[in-house]
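Narrative summary of target 7.
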Amino acid sequence: MADALRSMEGKIYAITGAGGGIGRATAVRAAQLGAAGLALCDVNVDALEGTKKILAEFSAVHVLLHTVDIKAENEVDDWIDAVVGEFGRLDGAANVVGINRRTRQQNTGNIETPDWNATLDVNLNGTMYCMRKQLKHLTRPGGSIVNISSGAGLRGIPGMPIYCTTKWGIRGLTKAAAAEFGPEGIRVNALMPGPIHSGENFQQAIDSGLINPETLSATTAMKRLGTIEEIGKVVAFLLSDDASYISGGKDFLPAQYYGSGRPTNPYSRITLNLECIR
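Modeled conformation, tokenized:
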């Protein structure tokens, strides 16, 4: 087993959604564990620059920034080509970006087609575009992909049919890829975080009353919200050589708890676009 403090030493990783939240936390953890190169993308260039400033303390890490809209497959392809062109290889990737777009409270009987298409474009199509291109270049053997699904990818949550669909889809895509590329020495895993305090936008939703943190905390085993740093550490572990025999077969559920009875929607008061969930 690799030294736990250097388990990503010398490796090159691509991370989406790295301007904040779990993506930024994963980048920081990878730098702490010795990554040689981090190719970071986001739609928000200012947020990416903020991540780069945080990473400045890790002088040995070469940080490459790209503004990428992952629902545009040509932008994804150009990004990964640039990564391989700069670093010469790709050892792992974390596909973190996700949205939960709703113009109003919806159930399956009144889904708005624009909301359906917009959410699938980012969460499912975007993840597929990233994986498809990453798999062409990942180190064999030893390459690794980690996708971010959700607890919503394990249960049907009333009022969140679109988001649930995308997160179930990510699990299926992950498991299929793990089976297909395992013989080549590539690992593919999905992480299903429970309620996570994902950053400034999430805090704004709490402050405005759109999210009740106590209600969210009650759905977890530890009765508190998780932090992006805690999730970033799990993502980094799954990317690293320390997880060399973990792929596809199990779902990773940090601190989640599922009791009996009909599931409820802890986000039920949110009726406007909320794109802060990663």
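DSSP finds eight helices and eight strands in the chain.
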